[in-house]
Amino acid sequence: MYNLLIGGAAGQGVDTTAAILERLIKQSGCGVFTMRDLMSRIRGGHNFSRIRFGAGAPRCHSESLDGIIALNEETIAIHRENLRPGGFILCDSAIKTDDEFAIKLDMAAIAQELGNARVAGSVAVGAALKLFGIPMSTEEAYSIFRKSVKEEHVDINVKAAQAGYNAVPQKFEHTAGEASDQMLVSGNQTLAMGALTAGVQFYSAYPMSPSTSIMEYLAAKSGEAGIVVEQAEDEIAGINMALGASYAGARAMTGTSGGGFSLKVEALGFAGMAELPLVVANVQRPGPSTGLPTRTEQSDLKFVISASQGEIPRMVIALRHHEDAFYQTVRAFNMAEKYQIPVILLSDQYLADSTATIPVLDPRRIALYQPEEGPAGDYARYRFTENGISPRKLPGMSKDLVAADSDEHDEYGHIAEGSEMRTRMMNKRMGKMALLEEELLEPEVLGDSAPEVLLLGWGSMYGPLEEAVELLNQKGGKRYGALVFGDIWPLPQKLLKKMAPSAKHLIHVEQNYTGQLAALISEVTGIKTDAGILRYDGRQLSGEEIADRIAKEGF
């Protein structure tokens, strides 16, 4: 695997350069994983993207670097220490550095000769491809540049890339696999694709990083897919509009980050009380309050499990990687419809904004749940049934009254304040949790299935933990394994209770300060971990960092 970093200030085209490069690298047959680290400003600051690529299928980033494309001097100062021996720093001749690994290329002059100073980044693209020994087809270059720049600028950008390609010697051997026919997608894109596959008909949200690109993707497809996408005036309106659509019979969804989810909490409780199906995506970022709007964290777990006054049935699913985001989103809609509950999808900035090559998604893997319409005759929206799930009719589709009430109510939806009815309705609603437990997906086992050291993680820690146990097991000696939770509330317990007793050490690995997964496991099962690997500075743990910290602690 090779690792390339592109860095510069906001406004210098870091993200555009990375997007073009990753597509060209993918077309050469390499598997690609690109993480994005940006500041919440339009100009200035330090932004960078790490592109990891090779013959395999990378699922996470690496701190080690084989190459750096430095669009300013700050990039060299910040990232030089991570450059491996024999690597390179590609930069413009105007950047002041006497580093022995620097390859200075007069990118600005080449761009000026071509007639547009702004194509200097494309010169760097071509040079980087040549340094890694990646062939550049003119036809593919034209195709990929058309996806990133306006048509009138495509030709000059391709010429700039060709000039950069011819200006440097090859440094590394190209290692390609068979990824050219795969999809290159972000986590938010696959989540949105999952929603479309599940038959979402209404999506309403207020723009909030890092969830906004879900709405952008769905809005771009809304005409083709025949769905309504509404940018609400605020977070409260976003969820209430989705609940209104759900009541009317539409498959509905809303999305936000932690701060917006805080504002949606009362309406989430209404979804539970009114037994309205709803999917809510919470793409986490560091809090509290505004926090770090463009960085990553896993600090909303305990919040979303308990959000709302009182107690309601809900399901919480943590998305683990790009494929998982697609299939679990489809499943979330099915579970919401089947049990008439809110289902919360927990993602984070790392997964949402990163892009990866994955096999072409197959919508046929999950059948869509088709609810049965309520019976004819005397209709009660909240009728008591053996399994606690009431037959559902849609308002206006029959002569029956389809009630929905935020107050406690009887079977017909009329306000009821008696203790007997209250107890029966609470038992009805909360009884759905026992049904949910029968459909839970157990956490995925990575590494050794009978480990001496068992690592516990959830969500986007999947990729880093997969690499960490591989690195640790390569050293020999102890056996290492990991359980990575996707379904996380209700908490699946079978595999955990099977593997934990035989492990000498249990270590939780999370992107938060308090070890929220470890606390949840202790609360539900009584199983306690021996130690934790935690990070909460807004950046994701890498597999290498996890392995190093495990080794240093002597586990």
Spatial strand sequence of the major β-sheet: 6-5-4-1-3-2-14-7
Q: Considering the protein shown, what is the CATH homologous superfamily of the largest domain?
A: Thiamin diphosphate (ThDP)-binding fold, Pyr/PP domains
Structural class of the secondary elements? alpha/beta
Low-confidence stretches: none
Q: pLDDT average, as an integer?
A: 95
Q: What is the correct CATH architecture of the largest domain?
A: 3-Layer(aba) Sandwich
Distance between the termini: 27 Å
Q: Sheet with the most strands?
A: 8 strands, mixed
Which CATH class of the largest domain is shown? Alpha Beta
Residue share in β-strands: 15-25%
User: What is the radius of gyration?
Assistant: 25 Å
Q: State the helix count.
A: 19
Q: How many distinct beta strands? A: 20
Keywords:
eight-stranded mixed sheet, 37% helix, 555 residues, alpha/beta, single chain, seven-stranded mixed sheet, Pyruvate-ferredoxin Oxidoreductase, domain 3, 19 helices, Rossmann fold, 4 domains
Task: Describe the protein.
The structure is a single chain. The chain is α/β, with parallel strands linked by helices. It has four domains: 2-166, 3-Layer(aba) Sandwich (Pyruvate-ferredoxin Oxidoreductase, domain 3), CATH 3.40.920.10; 184-360, Rossmann fold (3-Layer(aba) Sandwich), CATH 3.40.50.970; 371-439, no CATH class; 444-552, Rossmann fold. 37% of the residues lie in helices and 21% in strands. It has 19 helices and 20 strands. It has helices at 14-27, 73-79, 107-114, 120-131, 138-145, 151-166, 187-197, 212-225, 235-247, 258-274, 301-306, 322-339, 349-353, 419-430, 432-437, 462-474, 494-499, 516-525, 543-552; strands spanning 2-10, 31-37, 44-54, 65-70, 83-92, 102-105, 183-186, 202-205, 228-231, 252-256, 278-284, 315-318, 342-348, 355-358, 444-447, 453-458, 480-485, 487-489, 505-510, 531-534. It has an eight-stranded mixed sheet, with helices on both faces. A seven-stranded mixed sheet has the order 9-8-10-11-13-12-18, sandwiched between helices. Helix 2 (73-79) links the parallel strand 4 (65-70) and strand 5 (83-92). It is globular, with a radius of gyration of 25 Å. The mean pLDDT is 95.
